[in-house]
Structure formats: structure tokens, C-alpha cells
Amino acid sequence: MIKNRLKGMLEGCRWLEPLHMAYIGWRARHGGHVDWSHLIGTESPEWQRDLQQARIGEKKFLIATSIGGHLPSATIESMLGVALTLRHVEAEFLLCDGVLPACMSCEVRWHADIEKFARTGPGEVRCRHCFSPAKAMLDSPGLVTHSYSTYLDSESRRRAREIAGNADVKELASLTIDGIPVGEHALAGALRFFARGDLESDSACGAVARRYLEAALLTLYAVRNLLTGAGYDCVVLHHGIYVPQGIVAEVARSMGIRVVTWHPAYRKRCFIFSHNTTYHHALMSESNDQWQDISWDDERDQQIADYLKSRWQGNRDWISFQHASKFGGDEIARELGVDLSRPCIGLLTNVYWDAQLHYPANAFPNMLDWLLKTISYFIKRPDIQLLIRIHPAEIYGTVPSRQCMADEIHRAFPRSSGNIYIIEPESSLSTYAVMALCDSVLIYGTKTGVELSSMGIPVIVAGEAWIRGKGISLDSNDENHYFELLDGLPLEERLSAAKVKRARKYAYHFFFRRMIPLEFMCPTKGWPMYRIGILGLQALRPGASHGLDIICNGILNGTPFVYSAEKYASVPL
Questions:
Q1: Does 312 lie in the same domain as 231?
Q2: Which sign, positive or negative, has the C-alpha torsion 146, 150, 156, 158?
Q3: Considering the domain boundaries, does residue 87 fall inside one?
């Protein structure tokens, strides 16, 4: 396959790392961060008064950016710091100054020599280019920045090294220290580094995992020292998982401090904010009362239908993995060799390594286990054809996967079965068009279940998909229940009109209400994928942006991060 050939060409290329380091240095020197001095400009006297008012205010917030070189985060969070200051609230920042031996900024594709990374970590040059420009960006408007190393003494560092060095990597997921699940986040960080859903059993992988565990422990000690007695009302940070952000959030929660997490949304100029936990968990546990009773009419129905159709090609999104050019049923049937006169069941995978966290509702221990057991089941059901669509983000995502589901399938089932069809991630067949040909669709954690149910397609959920528990899908409680649901296939009917309406209400809530628009965030064709498109501070003051007001009010007062799009004549952006 082309994907595997490219992967083989790139992996082990030692020249990639110095090239990437040179790029990091270039970005740090040439406008990678926001120039707040320029944006403040002639408004400097007013800004100084705002700063003074914020410092004597009653509330104080910590924005734990941590990874200053992660430009998408540094851009948004510096903007939030300025916006909160304009609301006369003190916002302080936390940055790693090179003390962590591994972090979310590290990826295996930029460290071809894994054994070297296991010994030395990201390196002094990479850390300097990450910390110094971000610190300068935050210093220029006069915002307070804390550094990790300030809150770590020699004993803390020794203890972190000792615990990490003695840890059993096989038991990492269950390791807790002082009630903090450091092992879960360290494992998630290591899996993200390797872009795999499980760790290979070699010494380098174990050493890298221990490096992430040491970083998690150092984060625990530093953040706990910083938060103790500091009087923070809330901690704001991106993702809320991995290292160090996941540990920061865990420590804050353990100390009774509110946590707000955020992540770029799918729609252009939109962001998802959540209270207390990562959005991966928040959208699963969110009460149905947030959306099931919203006013509904033909206009709302048409708005969500039009947007969902646009997602077939992703032209209204800045996070999209659709590269499809083939949408016709006959064309799909010819390319796959599938017989459309016989029942077809769709199956959608998700990226195996992404957000490897514990979800108690899962019917299977992991996505791969679900996938292989499902294939085994359908091999014994020759009356049904199974169309497996491998997630395009395996190759088109920000961090391309190094553990590909097609490879895992072929390894487990070296002999092909006449009723199992695999659609590779690079395929030009439209995921939506393929699934529209199916009687029903099986998912584990993909968000596409929200869209398919809105098309009237029945969806069976085996994992942590956000559609679970919404009264729309068929949710499996455990492995036995899952296979009982499969025994009832094919269903031979679409969802009822009432179910489709409920599904579209939730889709509207998910895409238009939970995704909060910031109209001044302009898409780019480079990295980061957006920039702040304002001419001065007036655009960030209260009342200038409804979306920003909702975000700031949520951070300040704990109000829901919901943009009530149904109250407007049309959905913006």
C-alpha cells in the first residue's frame, strides 16, 4: 500500500529531526506567537488600567498552557488571558521551561532515533524554542507567567526519577500516586508519542513510557506546589489529557479547584469548552436536558441537514479528514465488489491511539478487541456483508498512526473472507456514501454516529461514542449484549421519524451549540490552523463577541458552555 511505502521511507530517516528542529526555530523567530504589543498599540494606557484592576480583583485564574511551543494552544490561551484581564480578572500562566523529560510536543516521527530519545528526551534546543518565545509573548503585555522548575526541588526530582525507574510498564495504566492516576495519563502520552494503541514490548518503548511517567510525576509535584495557597478560582487548559495537561487537571480537581478544558471544534472558527473534564468525557456524560427540549422547526432542521451534508467534503470545517471523490452507489459497488442486493452492515473504526482513557461504559477492553471479535462474528454470518471503513485520520491526521487497523486485520485474518470488505484510510470512496448503502452501522468511538443517525441510519454503539445514552442509538452494555444486538441484524428498516428528529436535535446541539464561534479566529493554510484576526483590544472587550462572552462567563462563573444558536435567525459561520 502507498501508506506503508511512505511510512517505510520516512521512519528511520535521521535527517528529519534536525529539519524539524530548524523549522521550530524558524517559527519561534518569525511570528509563530501573537504580537500583543502591536495589538495593544495606542490602547496601552487603557490596558495598563485594566491590568491594575485585574490584579486587585476578587478572582484569580491559572491558564496552564504548559507547552508554549504548541501554537494552537498558545494562541487561544494568550487571547483568553487578555480577554479575562479586560474583564478585570487576574489571569496567570504556567509554562514548562524545559524541566519535563517528555511531553505532548514530542512525537516519534521527529525522533527517528527512539533509543536516543529514551536516553535524552526532547533536548535543550527544542525546549528552548518552546519556552522562550511563549514567555516573551506573555511578558510583552505584562501577564504573570510561572515556570515548572520554580516549583520543583531536588527531592521532588529524585522521587520522580526513582518511581518512574522502578515502575512496571505493563501495569502503568493502573498506577496512582496520592490519588492521581498518573499512569493513565503517562500511558496516553506514550501512546500518542508512538501513535499506537499499545506499546511494543522492547526496551526503548518501556524507557519512553517511564520518561512520560517521570514527566507526569514532576507535573504533579510542581502543580500541587503552585496551587497550594495561591487562591486560584479556576484552572484553564487545552485537551485535559496527556502529559502534562491531564495531570494538571487531575491535581486541580483533587484540590477542589474548578477546571475548564477546551479544544478546537470541527466547524471553522469554533471551539469546544467543557467544565471539570476533557470534552471526550464531558460530551458523553452531558445531561440530555441540555438539548432535547430546544425549540425545533423546519428552519433548524434544514440548517443542520445542510451542514451535515457539507461534512461529506468538509468545506465548512477546519478539522476534516474527508478526501472523497466517489459518492455513487454503483461506483462504490464496483470498486469494492460488494453485492448491493444482499444486506450490508457498515463498521467505522477510530484512530486507535487517540485519547486512550478509561470509559466505564465500553463493552470491550479496547477498539482493536472489538474490531477483531466483530469480524470473527461476521465470518460466521455469510448472509451479511461487512463493510469496514478504516478512519482516514490514520494517515491524514495531525499525528499519523503507526498502528494501522488494516494491518491488524490482515495479521489476525490472513485468509480473506468473501463477506468482509476493507476500505483503506486513503480510499477516495465517501465514508458517508458507503454507510448510506448499509442496513445499519457499528461504531466504537467515532463521532460519525451523530451524523449517520441524523440520516436515519441505525447505529449500534460498542464503545465511548458521544451518541451513547442519547436515546438514539442501540447501546451495548457488555460484550454479550453487543452480540445479541448483532444477532438481530439485518434490521431492515430505517430509524423512525421521531428518532431522526431527536438525532438531528442532538446533532444541532453538538455542532451549533456546543461548538462556540469566535468570529475573529481566522483560518490559515499553515500551522497553527488559525490566527487572531483583530486590529486592537476592542474586539475582545465584553459585548464585542457573543461567543467570547459565553466562554469568559463560563470560566468566571461556571455557567454552561452552550451557544444558543436556536435563538438567532441563522447560524453564523
A1: no
A2: positive
A3: yes
Round to whole Å and give the CA distance between 186 and 69. 20
d(CA 169, CA 358): 17
Residue 131 lies in a domain: yes
Q: Is position 457 within any domain?
A: yes
C-alpha cell at 540: 475582545
Instruction: Flag whether 286 is in a domain.
Output: no
Do 471 and 563 sit in the same domain of this protein? Answer: no
Q: Are residues 47 and 12 in the same domain?
A: yes
The residues, ordered by sequence, that sit 6+ positions from 547 with a Cβ below 8 Å of its Cβ are: 516, 517, 518, 519, 563
The range of the structural domain enclosing residue 456 comes to 293-513
d(CA 289, CA 306): 25
pLDDT at 26 over 80: no
Q: Which helix (H) or strand (E) holds 88?
A: none
Over residues 517-563, the pLDDT tens digits come to: 999 999 998 888 999 999 999 999 999 999 999 999 999 999 999 99
**CATH number, domain at 326?**
3.40.50.2000
Distances (CA, A) of 178 to 64, 183, 241: 21, 12, 18
**How do residues 30-86 score in pLDDT, each as one tens digit?**
457 999 999 999 999 999 999 999 999 999 999 999 999 999 999 999 999 999 999
What mean pLDDT comes out for the span 347-368?
80
- What's the pTM value of the predicted model, to 2 decimals? 0.92
Considering the domain architecture, whether residues 309 and 449 belong to the same structural domain is answered as yes
